[in-house]
Amino acid sequence: MTEYKQVDAKPDSIAVPGARARRPAGDSEENQPWRQGDLRLFLTLGVKVLVTVYLADVLLNALFIYVPTMSTTDHLGASPLLLTAIAAYPLYRLIVLPVKRYLRELEEYREELEGRLATRTRELQASHQSAQTQTRAIEEQAGLLKNAQEIMQRANERFFNLFSGLPAACFTCDSDGVIFEFNEEAQRLFGIRSTQVLLQPMYTTFVPERDREKISELISRAIRGEKITGFEWHYTPEKGPSRWLQCNVLPVQVLGGEVTGAIMGCLDVSERKHALRDLEAAHNDLEQANAKLKALATTDSLTDLPNHRALQDHLRARLTRRDRPFALVMADVDRFKEFNDTYGHPAGDEVLRVVGQALKRIIRKGDIVARYGGEEFCLVLEAASYEDAVRTVERLRREVASADTGYRTVTSSFGLAMLDPTVSQTELIQRADDALYQAKAAGRNCVVAWSPEKKAAA
Question: What is the mean pLDDT of residues 57-82?
Answer without folding.
Answer: 52
